[in-house]
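To the team - zinc ion complex, inputs and output below.
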Amino acid sequence: MKDLVYEYPTKVYFGKGAAKEHLPAALSAYGPNVLLAYGGGSIKKNGIYEEILDILRAAGKRVTEFTGIMSNPTWAKVREGAALARDCGAGLVLAVGGGSVIDCCKIVCAQAVEEEDLWDLEMVRHEVPAKAPIPLGAVVTASGTGAEMNGGAVITNEDAKIKGGMFSAAPRFAILDPEYTMSLPQMQVLSGAFDTLSHAMETYFGRSDRDNVSDEVALAVMRSTVVNMRTLLEDIGDYTARSNLMWTSAMAENGILKVGRLTDFECHQIEHQLGAYTDCNHGQGLAVIHPAYYRRVWSSAVPKFARFARNVWGISAEGKSEEELAQAGIQALEAFIRACGLPTRLTELRSRVEITPELLRQVADSTNLLPNGPRQLTRDEVYEILMERL
Ligand code: NZQ
Ligand code: ZN
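Output:
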């Protein structure tokens, strides 16, 4: 195990009716002004907006709304939210949505108390903001990212063409009601769940010590994610599978899998830059890139890939070399992606521009190259991976 400090900051209320049951008490710790933040309007169609607003009003809160937070939230949207939070004197920002709304609000909370532009401070000068952010609460309506239980936030600076990770405080509390996710379109459910699988894989394939308990937990999270995704392919409305996935999502990104080890996350770096140029869906972008990335690097971590094949995909080692087993695991991952109906080609992704070799060169040239996966890629290899999936 690497040396570590572990502390858990988010109180989680999980289950049917969790907002009605627990939100009033959770709100009582904060001042009278609440910034209620949400996305493009799904919460107005499925009744969540009314339910949360009633709870806020009954708690005597003065509510200001911050609306229209887009998937892949932009730096301009963060600035808009920070100005609103400042103007209304928010004592709490309540983010109601998926990873995009929660991430945007994390940085809104930090930017609202800072004079300086946090993009310049964090992303250009690599400094850490000094002031404590406004407290944040999260009501999850789309699971997969695990954003509700960590302090990371992925923000797109459209001018700089960078989709990058920023940091703030994790939400003080999170409401996780699987019923709130029931109105999600099937493709978003599956791409969110694939994001969870990706987080566990990205953590597992980072460097860890032999017999590390975090690896065992990561493999269990992967198995559980795959089993429950398979259940949803039969019945997308299966509550038990949806609730299991809501918790594997949180488990994969609440830091517990990362305890005492290094992580990979190169696939995420590639997807983030692809997102910066195309605005593609995060989970779907990962589904396209993962198998091609693993085909590049497996031979530098054969025992880990072989264990992944055995433990996650149940592939028998009998009659196979470790190398064959390792490759069979990657094939099983790709077959699973196809079975889920997730995209395997870049051209299948939603994109605001045409995806061309020239664009992919720019994506490759702006991708962070991380050192702790099976091996570090070169920029040309990132480009080749992307071209393989065009
Ligand atoms: O905007 P609305 O109208 O609410 O629609 C959203 C959006 O179109 C819709 N939706 C959400 N809840 C719904 C619903 N539709 C019907 N019923 C509901 N109950 O779903 C769409 C996608 O929402 P979004 O929040 O964009 O998806 P997701 O949760 O996958 O978040 C993606 C963002 O999170 C970042 C990604 O990069 C991306 O920007 N990530 C954040 C991480 C973190 N903070 O730990 C880790 C991840 O690796 C990831 O990078
Ligand atoms: Zn992710």
